[in-house]
Specification:
alpha+beta, Rossmann fold, eight-stranded mixed sheet, 20 strands, 34% strand, globular
């Protein structure tokens, strides 16, 4: 771990000065940063956070990941005037968004957040719970798939695909039909000693596009917007979230075509590996993080053990009940 002691970046609070034993820098603490923390559970990890995240389920136990507010040392900070910047290395991941904040992710167990003085909390958290935790999962050797997961027959079924493919909408539609949600946006997958793929519960919300949100009684008012950087709205699902990890039974990769019909075909051989690799969350960071071998091994394990399907739906129009019915019927027959 790079940091044993950190500094709360808030000049309006009374501060105390401590010296970090393992470094030459000194850091100042506020009374509040020493006393207040929140405990959560997500992605199979116990999380201790200085930032309140009601999007996550509360948890207990020794923290696997620590989220701290503090000033990031200058030696990590680059391109301060850019709108956004990231650098991934085998030792750390640095990420900055202008007028929001800076993030430093190290060792798969520490996220240091330096918030901008005027940052909106929802903006700060959207990058924390998204990109930063994607990096944490990569650093820990856990495979993050960009998708949403539902529970069918006591196993996880993942809907994956590019932005706008309809994975969150499809998952929410299954929830309306009685299925439990296990993850949205990021599906964290680990592997047993025997190579079985396990999906872990994610955050207690689904992020839905504005055009489909009314189907689930979600409106743009009332603080439902995910962040000012997104046109998506949050649908709280704490009561419908699967609380325990489950084996992965199948993955449906969603895409669009110009035809008016819906087709589902099973993927085989190398196709499966390529689809897993393509739909890995924050794939562009893998090489710089020096996680290529781990990602190849995990992708191969997932492709070798789990049935996978390619789903093509009409390009025109938004996702509708026809797709839900088609996938639901396919799950019953497969």
């Amino acid at each position: 771990m790079l940091f044993e002691i950190i500094c709360l970046n808030n000049n309006t609070l009374n501060s105390y000065v401590f010296f970090c034993v393992s470094h030459t820098e000194n850091y100042s603490f506020s009374k509040e940063s020493l006393l207040k923390s929140y405990n959560y559970k997500a992605f199979g990890l116990n999380i201790e956070s200085a930032i309140k995240c009601p999007e996550l389920l509360s948890g207990t136990g020794i923290p696997d990941v620590s989220i701290r507010l503090g000033k990031i040392p200058e030696k990590f900070v680059e391109n301060k005037n850019w709108e956004h910047f990231w650098r991934a290395t085998p030792d750390y991941f640095f990420f900055s968004i202008k007028a929001v904040g800076k993030y430093l992710v190290t060792a798969g167990d520490t996220i240091l957040v330096e918030n901008h003085s005027e940052a909106i909390t929802s903006d700060l958290k959207v990058f924390l719970l998204g990109t930063c935790f994607g990096v944490i999962l990569h650093q820990r050797g856990i495979l993050p798939i960009h998708g949403s997961g539902v529970v069918v027959n006591n196993a996880g079924v993942i809907f994956s695909g590019e932005m706008g493919a309809g994975k969150s909408t499809l998952a929410a539609s299954f929830m309306n039909r009685g299925a439990r949600i296990i993850a949205d946006d990021v599906c964290a997958i680990s592997f047993t000693d025997k190579g079985q793929s396990i999906i872990h519960p994610g955050s207690a919300q689904i992020k839905l596009c504005l055009d489909v949100a009314p189907r689930f009684n979600i409106t743009a008012d009332g603080g439902n917007r995910v962040s000012s950087y997104s046109d998506k709205l949050r649908l709280p699902i704490a009561d419908d979230l699967q609380r325990k990890p489950l084996p992965v039974s199948s993955i449906y990769f969603l895409d669009k075509h110009e035809q008016m019909d819906i087709t589902i075909r099973e993927l085989t051989g190398r196709e499966k590996f390529l689809h897993v690799s393509k739909n890995t969350y924050r794939k562009s960071l893998i090489s710089d993080l020096s996680m290529d071998r781990t990602h190849f091994r995990n992708s191969s394990s997932l492709a070798g053990k789990v049935r996978m399907y390619k789903v093509l739906r009409p390009e025109a129009g938004s996702l509708n009940d026809d797709l839900v019915n088609c996938v639901e019927r396919h799950l019953r027959l497969s």
